[in-house]
Each structure stands twice: as structure tokens, then as C-alpha cells.
């Protein structure tokens, strides 16, 4: 069987195998086929040379897929407009055996359309030397046109036997990312010995200031530029600045630094084009290893393959904010550690490191009754714990529907309004992990030191799935720091999925916006009815109130009225007449959307008509997102006054009290004068300050009705309570 496989690889699979390090060592061609999980293949995708041109301009946008059998195990980044691309990307693959060759396919990326095939090659793994780095040159061929010259791909590979070392495995997940209609989930398995490699050791803070003299890409002699940043698997995208060659962004992004020596940040500038592929303006890089820590560096970077400069501020900050330990090692149970943490976030340390708001400890204890994901009737569950961009993982418990992890995760809190997400996956050696369930827990809703059974929800967090997970969470934070951080922009998530077109989502957002608009319409009808004297007593009362307010009106009465509304709703809440309601339409629509998601996943390989009319799709997505933003804005205002998040409502009361006092005692012209002086001198005092609106930043922390539904805690089955479980064990 082995000889036939090798013969087939040698005769029918096109590749040129150039071994630069092949003078010593033993080939594994005669080694018996290994047991599952016995080999690790480390691949470095170096570069391509003389690749085929597939675009009208005589270039291509190549990327590479690696496959074992029929399953994709790695996909490279896209190198735009280059027939001699340089990738320098690394991938690690676990192999159950060496019978299947490594299949390499190169494609030209076409935005919104089917990608063009640029050639393929095979690498016979049985010909690799064990434990020896090997440089490989692969000649690309097209089976339909074997005589065509499609260029070469250069790799470096190392094949290592791993006898029984992978029984305790953890997995670093990279969220699904979307390319037109194609979805790809990449995963990298790491042993416990290497787990520290994905605990980040610092923060790279980048402020994108401006662009200068960028290349004009549109017919009007201008561009609509935006910038993409990439550090490893972390990606950010700036906002789009319309019709300018000298954009002013003033945006800030934080990357996590996983390596002591730093890393390289890839930066690309693009011109946004509605309805077709965005134009590439240029690229540059930042080598973090060349920058000193704890210092802000101003960089003016020349764009390669294009024109113009980008101006950045880059700051490297050492930090140790996340950790994993066993349950026996518990920070808060150590009295000295607990006192140190409490002192760190005491009211006396308000102005010490404003970004360090609090401390979060999560004990992931166990799960029960999980979904069956394998044909054996079992699952191989592991847990991913996320707080904004911090992501930590437990080990995998094999062949178990009631796993016990007993792990403690600690995080530094930068925003008390963050949501802790705990997701359970089933590990699969040869493909991406299967989703088993998820919970989302707002930090402000956590009760310290209480072990709770959380019912696992579906991907949309709208309904239950099978199983519960037991967590014990503690949150310690400084309330003043948390309040001040509420008035600055939220941290962006680099793993957020791209928006997609969904008729259910579009309809849901339309209904939500309609409800907000109807509130204003009904208020207008109510006021108009007072003018029409439909109800004489009500109209008389409104008339008297109008005369009284207009005659005695002062500006301080505006925040005072809002303050009275908050107070009224608070007394309604504590008296049991809670007027907080979140329309069941939202829940129903979310469940419908989940069904549509499932259908989309099943049909993701089919090319629908929508992919051929990308311009219409993009317009629909824009409308869908605008509806969501408008509806969310109205719902957040309502939920502020409805005490949906008491911390934010109390903060609003404090702010309104301050504004009322200021407006009562200080003449309006002085207030406007101070405001104007601040606005006019702000750029002189701080040239690179990031503009923000404190009111909008505050409202961004208030959950919309959709988020309220997603964060609702489902009631667990009484049979899953910890007390009852202990009694059953005793019995």
C-alpha cells in the first residue's frame, strides 16, 4: 500500500524536490506508518516566483492553501498585485499518518467573485527526513494545461515524530474569517509546555494620526482611504475617510505582544470602492524589536508600492495581565494577594494608571451534559475564556460529556462594561473545532465568590443548547476609574466577524428602528391631542404647565427634568412596577436569524446569485447596519432611563446633578466661552489627541435590546444545582 502511494506521488504528482540539507539523516520512507498524532509538520511558506498573471493589469493577488487529503489545514494571507510574493508565514500541522501528501494550491483573490486558480503541487511527506529542516521548491502545474509554466513556490519544512506527547492538548482558536462567500476556521494545537506562548506579555498601542500625499485612485483625482493593521492573527481596520489624499484619522488600536522580541506589524492602505474590489494604495511595516519600551515613538512611514506617508504614534508597554493556573493556585484565596489586589484598586489610587480599572478571576470548574459531537457518542471538550481581546484556553478533556477543568483565569479589566464570554468547543484533530455552547456574562452582573451553573446557549446567545457550565467569578474594580473610562471610546475587538447580508437581520433592524420612531410619533400625537382639546382636563393641565414652564424656564431645568425621569423610573423599579421591557419580537427574530445562519452554513459552498451582484449586496448591508445603529441608539437612551444597567444610570444621575448645579450657578455665556476656548486650543495643546464624544461613548456602554436578550441568564435545570449534586453523591 505504501509503495503504491509513493509510486503514485512520484509519477502523477508534479513537484520538484530540492533538498538543500540532505547530506545526512535518515529518510522516513521506510518507517512504518505511525499511530494517530505521531507527527508534527512545521511549514514555513517562504515566497513565490514568476507566478501566473490572472488580473487585467498583468498581475495577481496570490494566496496559498495547504490541504491534507480533502481537508484544508492552512491558508496564507493575500499578497496584492505581485507575481513574486513574499509570505514568510508559519504553520504547524499534526499528522495521523504520512500516507496523504501535502497538497498546495495557489489562487488569485477576486473580491466578491470566484477566485482564479493559479496552479498546484504535491509534497510527498514520506520523502522528508525526520528532525531535519528542508528547503523545498515546488513547481506549480495546472492538470488541465500541463505544459503551462505557472511559477514556483518555496517552502521550508520540518517533520518531527511526536510519540504520545499530545494526549493533553489545548487549542488556540482563530475566529472564523470571511472572504466573500467563503469561510475558514484556522486552529493551532499547543501542548501544555508551550501554553505560555499565547499569554501576552505586553501591549502595543498604535495611534493612526494621518496620511500625507496618498496616491489618487479615483477618477476625481482623490481617494477614500482606510488602513489595515496586522500583527500575527490580530487585525484592525481604520474608518474610511472620503475624498481626500491627506486623511486625518486620529484612531487608536491596541495589539497584544506575545513574543519577548517583538514582532512586525504589517500596514496596508486601501481606497474604498463601492460595488467593486478596493484599490491597493501602498504598504509599510513596523519592526517592534527596533523600538524601545515604555516610550512613545512618532513614525513617518513611506508607503511602498505606492505613494505618500502614514504618520503613527507607537508605544510598547510591558504588562502581565492574563494568566492560567490550576484551582489549587488561587490569587484571591491567598490573603496577602487579596489584600494587595484590594489596595491596588482602592479609592485612594484613583489617578494611578487610569487604564487599569480592575481585576477579574474566573474559575472554570466543570461542565455537565454536553452535546455529543463525535461518532463515539462522546466529545473532547475544551473551554475558551474571552474578555475583549484577551483569550485563554483550558486543556482538552477527551471522550467526556461531563469534563472537569478546574482552571483559574485572571485578567486585568480595562472597561468594567466588558462582557465575559465562555465558549465550549469539541476538539477535532483533523479539522476545526465544533461549537458546543456559549455564555456571555456582563462584568457588572457578576456576584463575587458564587459558584453558579450557567446554561449554555447557542451561537447567537438567544436560546439554550445542551449542557451547563459551572463557573465561580470574582470582580474587584475601582468605581471612579470605571466611571472615567466610560467617557472614552470602547476598545475595538480585532476578532469581530464581518457584517453579512441577512433578510431576517434586515427585517429585525427595521422593526427595531420603527419602534423607536413610533415612540416619537406617538409623543407628537399626544402633544397634538392636547392642542385639539380631545380631553379637556388633560389639555387644561398641559396649558397651565406650558405657561408655568415657559415663564420660569432656565437652562438648568433640562438636566433637572432628565434627573427627575431617572428618579421616577428608579422608584418604579424598587416598588415592583418595573417598566423595563424588551420586546419579544427581538427574541423571535434572533431565533429566526439563527435558523437562517444554519442554512447559510450548509449552503456556504454554493455560489448564489447574490455573490454576482456584490454592489447591491454592499448597499443592503449598509442599510442593514444603519438601521441597527439608529435602533440601538434609541434603545440605549431608553435603557439608560429604565435602569437596565444600574451602574450607568447612577453615573447619569451624578452627571445630571453636576450639570444642573453648573447651569444654575454659572451664566451660560461663561460655559460657552470655556467650551469654545477648549475646542479651539485642543489641537495646540495636544496635536495628536483622539477626538471623541463623551456622551456617545457613554451610550455605547449601555446595552441595546438585542444585547439585553443575549446577556439574559437562562434558568438551569434544578437537577444541575451543586447542592443537589453533592447530596446525590453522598447518597
TrEMBL record:
Primary location class: membrane
Q: How does it sit in the membrane?
A: Multi-pass membrane protein
Q: Recite the UniProt keywords alphabetically.
A: Calcium, Membrane, Metal-binding, Repeat, Transmembrane, Transmembrane helix
Q: Where are the transmembrane segments?
A: 540-571, 647-675
**What are the subcellular locations of this protein?**
Membrane
Tell me the first and last residues of the signal peptide. none
State the InterPro entries in the record: C2_dom, C2_domain_sf, MCTP_C
Please state every residue range assigned to the domain named C2. 20-138, 184-301, 335-456
**SUPFAM superfamilies, A to Z:** C2 domain (Calcium/lipid-binding domain, CaLB)
What family does the entry list? Belongs to the MCTP family.
**UniProt xrefs under PANTHER family:** C2 DOMAIN-CONTAINING PROTEIN, DYSFERLIN-RELATED
Q: What is this protein called?
A: Multiple C2 and transmembrane domain-containing protein 1 isoform X6
What is the species of this protein? Ceratotherium simum simum (Southern white rhinoceros)
Q: Quick one: which gene encodes this?
A: LOC101393178
